[in-house]
Amino acid sequence: MLEKEITLKNETGLHARPAARFAKLANTFSSDIKISYQGKTYNGKSIMRIMTLGIPCGARFTLQVEGQDEEEALNQLEELLLHGLE
């Protein structure tokens, strides 16, 4: 399992559109993907679960990826979170 702590830079937080973009990319990988924030961990492939976390701009959260393509998944999802949601 790979794990990365990320600070969300998207000004509007991880709301509907960014959550949809994240989940769409996450679903292209076979690995299990989870997002943890403030003691809650949810499936990173579910738009509704991501939105439930309510992660605001500037918040730190953990991205966990486990599976055959975990390294590629982590790299692409991190890139999206850091630079692709603007």
What's a concise summary of this model?
The protein is an alpha+beta fold and 86 residues long. The chain is 38% helix and 27% strand.
List its salient traits.
4 strands, alpha+beta, 3 helices, four-stranded antiparallel sheet, Histidine-containing Protein, Chain: A, 27% strand, 86 residues
List the helices and strands and how they pair.
Elements: E1 2-7, H1 16-26, E2 32-37, E3 40-43, H2 47-53, E4 60-66, H3 70-84
Antiparallel strand pairs: 1-4, 2-3, 2-4
Helix pairs in contact: 1-2
Main location: cytoplasm
Domain HPr: 1-86
Keywords: Cytoplasm, Phosphotransferase system, Sugar transport, Transport
How would you portray this structure in words?
The protein has helices spanning 16-26, 47-53, 70-84, and strands at 2-7, 32-37, 40-43, 60-66. Strands 1-4-2-3 form a 4-stranded antiparallel beta sheet, covered by helices on one side. It has 3 helices and 4 strands. Helix 1 (16-26) packs across helix 2. It has one domain: HPr-like (Histidine-containing Protein, Chain: A, 2-Layer Sandwich). The relative contact order is 0.31. It has 86 residues and is α+β, with helices and mostly antiparallel strands. Residues 1-86 form the HPr domain. Its main location: cytoplasm.
